[in-house]
Amino acid sequence: MSATEGHEVTDVHAHLLMPGLHAEVERRVPDEVQAAADLELRRNGLASLQASGRMIGERFPRLTSVEARLAAMDEQGVDRQWVSPSPNHFYPWANEGLATWATGEANRLVAEHVALAPDRLVGLGTVPLQHPHLVVDALDDAVLGRGLAGVEISSFAGDVELSDERLEPFWARAAELRAVVFLHPFGCSLDERLDRFYLSNTVGQPTENAVALSHLIFAGVLDRHPGLRLIAAHGGGYLPTAIGRSDRAWAVRPEARGCAHKPSSYLSKLWFDTVVHDERALRWLVEAAGADRVLLGSDFPFDMGLDDPVAFVRGAGLADAEVTGILGANAAELLRTRVHA
Question: What local confidence, expressed as pLDDT, does residue 1 receive?
């Protein structure tokens, strides 16, 4: 076991690519897959898509092979990973039948992958967010059917925002199961405004995190479901550092009073990973949300992740107890009381 105070060093943000799943989706609905690819081209631009293709090709073993994953974890000093689907497997455009099959298949494949190293890997599944009436069954399939720790969701899907009242049963069930809900955007609704300089990721991802979390906060979702265990990727994006503006709106705008308390108070009711790429931002996140609400993340194995996530946390100038929590104790506590299959 690596450092720290008897807790396993745990990376909560790592991905699995499932090429067989995608090939079958493409076989079933080639026109829809092509339309999705066209949207990605419009959102990202050709240069970024070509660079991403090369990057994924180079890192393909770490995205698919348990052996390559474990070897990389050893190099990073990581004892345990929470493995979630690569976000391209959300398929937010899929119809009900395809979405039901694809999410079930993704949950099965994640479970099979982590079962090859159960002492080191924890799985997160997915749900068809664009079909709110299907998400509770998908969550049950992931947690109770497959033994996963929770599910990964995007920041929106089609016309479904996280504030959508149709998702209330999902939030209630996730809280009841004490399941992890990992918020990880895929795509940004700003579309071609971000189609160069890799703005689709550098600006798009933190924007989507901020928008999605704001929907949850201002709609009162966290008031109604205080037991919800939601982790925001990328440190919650822009929201933690700009939360004062949300507090001001809550204080002066009647339409922004859907939550019971000022928005900044809800940061300590959420969890955030450490993929912020700046030691100052990590310190601010700890100050804004509390050290017990921050979890080690790397975005493994993508190039926009942290190459040495443990060193990043250790180099941020935090107190020893805060480092201990972030590197593993906080993640262990989240899993300690979860409902098992």
Answer: 47
Extract the tokens encoding 201. Answer: 């990721």
The candidate with the shortest Cα–Cα distance to 16, out of 61, 75, 78, is 61
Q: Which two tokens stand for residue 254?
A: 């009647």
CA distance 283 to 291: 9
pLDDT tens-digit readout, 254-274: 999 999 999 999 999 999 999
In tens, the pLDDT along 63-77 reads 999 999 999 999 999
Chain centroid to Cα 70, Å, comes to: 21
Q: What is the model's pTM?
A: 0.96
If you compute the radius of gyration of the chain from its CA atoms, what whole number of angstroms results? Answer: 19
Cis check for the bond before 301: say yes or no (omega within 30 of 0). yes
pLDDT of 3 strictly over 70: no
Task: Express each pLDDT in 274-296 by its tens digit.
Answer: 999 999 999 999 999 999 999 99
Q: How would you class 124 by CB atoms within 10 Å of its CB: exposed for 0-12, middle for 13-18, buried for 19 or more?
A: buried
